[in-house]
Amino acid sequence: MFIKIKVPANVRGSIEHCENVQELLTAIEKQFQTSQKSLANTLIMKFTSLKFTTVKGVCDHINKMRDLVARLKALEVEMFKSFLVHYILITLCPQYGPFKISYNTHKDNWSFDELLTMCDQEQGKLILEMGESARTVTQGKRSVQAKQNKKVEIQPPN
């Protein structure tokens, strides 16, 4: 069978002799069939190990978590939306501390989309603050260096 020649040797060796293409494809599918439970376990491990460590890219982080949740839901592992919002807030880096406090003191619960929007706004604010603090440190350092390099001339008394 011509198709069997195109199948890699490591796959071909573990498949019994098949008379037609349909049998061959079925045998290959059975060999690579993954357990739904093991896939769910893997996705849960990825979900719980995701941590956000920088200020930039918060939307990507939230979307990765959303994707994992959708894949888990397809495997009949569902989570409450309020749990997801709280869990995502927990995974954010320490710079988002005041933002987390703001959410906890707020009376309304946010949806996934509201969290994404709010985090995006907070990210923009934090990036601006980081730029301001970097500029302050740089400008402050230059003025100190300028004072140190400046020669002070002592005027003789008249």
* Order of secondary-structure elements: HHHHHHHH
Mean pLDDT: 79
- How many discrete domains? 2
Radius of gyration: 29 Å
Q: Which blocks of ≥5 consecutive residues have pLDDT under 50?
A: none
**Number of beta-strand segments:** 0
Largest sheet: none
Observed structural traits:
158 residues, 2 domains, mainly alpha
Structural overview:
Residues 138-158 are annotated as: Disordered. Residues 138-147 have a biased composition (Polar residues). This protein is mainly alpha-helical and 158 residues long. The protein folds into two domains: 2-31, no CATH class; 36-134. 69% of the residues lie in helices and 0% in strands. The protein has eight helices and no strands. It has helices at 2-6, 9-12, 21-31, 36-49, 58-74, 81-91, 97-105, 112-149. Helix 4 packs antiparallel against helix 5 and helix 5 packs antiparallel against helix 8 (112-149). The radius of gyration is 29 Å and the shape is elongated. The termini are far apart. The relative contact order is 0.08. The model has no long low-confidence stretch (mean pLDDT 79).
Q: How would you concisely characterize the structure shown here?
A:
The chain is mostly helical.
Spell out the blueprint of helices and strands.
Blueprint (H helix, E strand, L loop, with lengths): L1 H5 L2 H4 L8 H11 L4 H14 L8 H17 L6 H11 L5 H9 L6 H38 L9
Helix pairs in contact: 4-5, 5-8
